[in-house]
From TrEMBL:
Domain C-JID: 636-778
Keyword Electron transport belongs to the record: no
GO molecular function: ADP binding; NAD+ nucleosidase activity, cyclic ADP-ribose generating
Protein name: ADP-ribosyl cyclase/cyclic ADP-ribose hydrolase
Top-level EC class as recorded in UniProt: hydrolase
Length: 807
């Protein structure tokens, strides 16, 4: 080891590249090369590890997290091992697709499964794929288990709880449960994230790769052949047997049963007595909402160690009396027969979350003297309790962050709600008896979300502009709202504003003061214009004004607008600077037939904007190693392909004539497409469709290959409409096409139903005509002239040598 360190010191006067693979601890690097100060500026050190903390300890500033392979590249990697070529052989496409779905872009799984399935018959493939759904392949398990084996006992328990019960759940609720279980989740969750065993999503959900979930569940399955001797139960058949035949033991710590998958279970009064270590119990129903767990006497239920109790359709009017008051942190009894929270709830001082959603006979919350004991309560969910008419004074529940009262019969809120200084979310949607809110609500500096959708609210409290943290305001379907004279100047954090179907006849100029607004929903209203001040909303990415049948004009829109839905604005006559953005765009202008005479100008603006984006993409390609795909589209009335598209065809396909080497040096940037779409069946009026194209690619020394690309989403339209869009390749697309000397031979467009089968053939819609342009960038392109001239026919036929050209 000293000699190795000495060798590194001798290299300290040179620029060097060092790669350390699969480093597990900081000392491994430190003992080899010591400090970063040893190396000459310009040196590069690459470290791969399963633990981010190793990188932090050594002062690494740039951490790159490996991403799953995109579908096409995953399929190619799998095919190289399963078929010894770059794509599946004929007849194995659907089976290969199922393997792709299982592996989810993980190279290890793709290689292992490809080698395992190579040379095997279709029936063997089918059997193997079915087996993978329940048993992880040993070679995959062996590699994945390395990270698990490096955890301590607390961290292992957290990992197994997540794998068996909590994938996709809210991280904060899960942490409350894990903390009550004694697992120290603050550090434990952090360690699992650093080791890439779990991920915390942008909306604060715990997620993990399916293969890691299978690993965790396999570890539990290996605890015992007898389900009653395993720590965690989630498979409905195992749970049914344990509960029906009273086979539970002290080994069981958690049960999660989907009751929609089993027959009715008659619970023995002693069923839970043997499960003296039971921490987690969840009886839920994913389909019909029926409670299938029956017990003769709720007083016999023993839940002394339970921290998390969820029982959908709980059949009794009172809570079980044998719950340990200092251990229960989450109580969820949706659709239950509970009439009210009894006085016993005051003893549950650690109770963090109460959910009584859709309890139709629930009429009363605890009185104020009882609520004051629930000082750890964070979530109160009484959603859908249709007979609940009032909420008591709740000033003492100072830690509460979320109150959900949507669908209740509540008539007013107590003024003490202004004392809930930590309240983040208030949901009063569909409260048909609620006409006003107390002014004390405006004291809540932390409040981020208010939902009043479908309520009888007549006016908003004053001064609402004091809600400086408010991010979401939902007033959709509030037809009793007297006016929209909101003092927008104080709502600096407002990001999402929902004003759908509010019978609004005029929008205020102050709309432009919402400097943080990103999404604005204005569908089904009666205004004729949108204030020009909307241009000042620099962060606005989505604007929805569909079915505003009196809307006559759209002003110049913000430059960052990504999504515009203006379908069925039947009096819309003019647009202003619609395609001023260089970003990805999805604009829907279908069924706006007064725009017909403006169609040429709209299309020319769109093509010009795409030209500018192509120039920006060429610059990006020259300056960056990696870059994402870019795409966008617009739908509007029309039945002709613009002459600008030199490659056109009747029907849904076009044959292309391309020269060898067309992808060399990344010269092909992407393509612009145009299709005339038609729907032939009125029964699909409420459907949505995915629009795809397939490129038939000729590969060097290989059979032709098909590349599929998703281009956008289209709703039912009539009569014929024009779908115009673009797709710019990412770095992997271009590098792959260049490496294999790809030559595009043909392109075909088609639809798939959203939420339908991926292989479903749709006869209800089709492509009447289509056109395509491939963007080609000259090697010597260093600048670009005035883009407004690009659509002059002469210039298209005789392109400038330094401008983008079309193949």
């Amino acid at each position: 080891m000293p000699n190795i360190a000495l060798s590194f010191r001798r290299l300290s006067r040179r620029k060097i590249l060092i790669v350390f693979d699969d480093v597990s601890c900081f000392n491994q690097i430190e003992s080899l090369i010591g400090s970063l100060d040893w190396f000459m500026p310009g040196s590069r050190i690459i470290i791969t590890t399963r633990d981010k903390q190793v990188l932090r300890n050594w002062g690494v500033k740039k951490i790159y997290e490996m991403e799953a392979l995109e579908y096409d590249h995953a399929l190619e990697l799998f095919s190289r091992h399963a078929f010894k070529q770059t794509h599946p052989v004929v007849g194995y496409e659907e089976l290969s697709s199922k393997v792709m779905e299982y592996a989810q872009g993980v190279p290890l799984a793709l290689k292992v499964l490809g080698c395992f399935l190579f040379g095997r018959e279709k029936e063997v493939w089918k059997s193997a794929i079915n087996k993978l759904k329940s048993i992880l392949h040993p070679s995959i398990q062996e590699i994945l288990k390395i990270s698990y084996d490096g955890l301590d006992d607390k961290e292992k328990n957290i990992f197994l709880d997540v794998a068996c019960f909590f994938k996709g759940e809210d991280v904060y609720s899960v942490m409350k449960f894990l903390d009550a279980s004694g697992f120290y989740p603050e550090i434990g969750i952090s360690v699992l994230v650093d080791k890439s065993l779990i991920v915390i999503s942008n909306n604060d959900r715990i997620t993990m790769h399916d293969l890691l979930q299978e690993l965790g569940r396999d570890i539990v399955l290996q605890e015992s052949v007898n389900p009653g001797n395993r720590s965690r139960l989630w498979y409905h058949e195992d749970i049914y047997g344990v509960l029906t035949y009273n086979m539970g033991t002290e080994k069981i710590e958690g049960i999660c049963l989907d009751m929609s998958k089993v027959k009715e279970i008659c619970l023995n009064p002693d069923t839970f007595t043997k499960m003296c270590r039971l921490r987690f119990l969840k009886f839920y129903s994913s389909i019909n909402g029926e409670n299938k767990c029956q017990v003769s006497d709720f007083r016999a239920l023993r839940f002394a160690e339970v921290r998390y109790l969820h029982w959908h359709g709980y059949p009794f009017k009172s809570l079980p009396s044998n719950i340990h008051p200092e251990k229960l942190v989450i109580l969820e009894m949706p659709h239950s027969n509970i009439e009210q929270l009894s006085e016993s709830v005051q003893h549950h001082g650690k109770l963090n979350q109460i959910i009584m959603a859709a309890c139709n006979i629930f009429t009363k919350t605890p009185n104020p003297s009882l609520i004051q004991h629930l000082n750890k309560l964070v979530i109160l969910n009484l959603s859908g309790c249709s007979k609940l008419k009032s909420l008591p004074e709740i000033s003492s529940a100072g830690n509460i962050e979320k109150i959900l009262l949507d669908g209740t019969a509540i008539k007013e809120l107590p003024s003490s709600i202004g004392c809930l200084s930590r309240l983040l979310e208030l949901d009063l949607g569909d409260c048909k008896n609620l006409k006003s809110l107390p002014s004390s609500l405006c004291k809540l500096k932390s409040l981020e979300e208010i939902c009043l959708r479908g309520s009888a609210i007549e006016e908003l409290p004053s001064p609402i502009e004091c809600l400086s943290a408010l991010c979401v305001l939902d007033l959709g379907d509030c037809k009793s709202l007297k006016s929209l004279k909101l003092p927008f100047d104080g709502l600096y954090s407002l990001t999402y504003l929902y004003l759908t179907d509010c019978a609004i006849t005029e929008l205020p100029e102050s709309l432009g003061l919402l400097s943080s607004l990103e999404e604005l929903y204005l569908e089904r209203n009666n205004f004729e214009r949108i204030p020009e001040s909307i241009i000042r909303l620099s962060k606005l990415s989505s604007l929805l004004v569909s079915y505003c049948e009196r809307l006559q004009t759209l002003p110049k829109l913000p430059c960052n607008l990504y999504w515009l839905d203006a379908q069925h604005c039947t009096t819309l006559e003019s647009l202003s600077g619609l395609f001023s953005s260089y970003k990805c765009v999805c604009f829907y202008l279908n069924e706006n037939f007064k725009l017909d005479r403006k169609l040429r100008g709209i299309v020319e603006d769109a093509l010009q904007n795409i030209q500018l984006m192509a120039t920006a993409r060429w610059k990006e390609i020259r300056e960056k190693i990696s870059y994402p795909a870019l795409q966008g589209h617009v739908v509007l009335p029309g039945n002709e392909i613009p002459m600008w598209f030199s490659s056109q065809g009747m029907g849904s396909s076009i044959t292309l004539k391309m020269q060898p080497g067309c992808f060399s040096n990344n010269k092909v940037l992407g393509f612009v497409f145009c299709a005339i779409v038609a729907f032939r069946d009125h029964h699909v009026r409420d459907w949505s469709f995915k629009f795809y194209c397939e490129f038939k690619i000729k590969l060097k020394d290989c059979d032709p290959h098909v590349i599929q690309r998703y281009l956008g989403r289209v709703n039912y339209v009539e009569p014929d409409h024009l779908l115009l869009g673009y797709y710019f390749f990412n770095h992997q697309d271009l590098n792959g096409c260049w490496e294999y000397n790809c030559i595009p031979e043909a392109v075909q467009f088609y639809f798939k139903k959203v939420l339908g089968s991926e292989t479903e053939t749709l006869d209800c819609c089709g492509v009447k005509k289509c056109g395509i342009h491939l963007f080609h960038a000259s090697d010597s392109m260093d600048s670009m002239e005035d883009p407004s001239k690009v659509f002059n026919r002469k210039e298209v036929e005789e392109p400038h040598p330094k401008r983008l050209k079309y193949l």
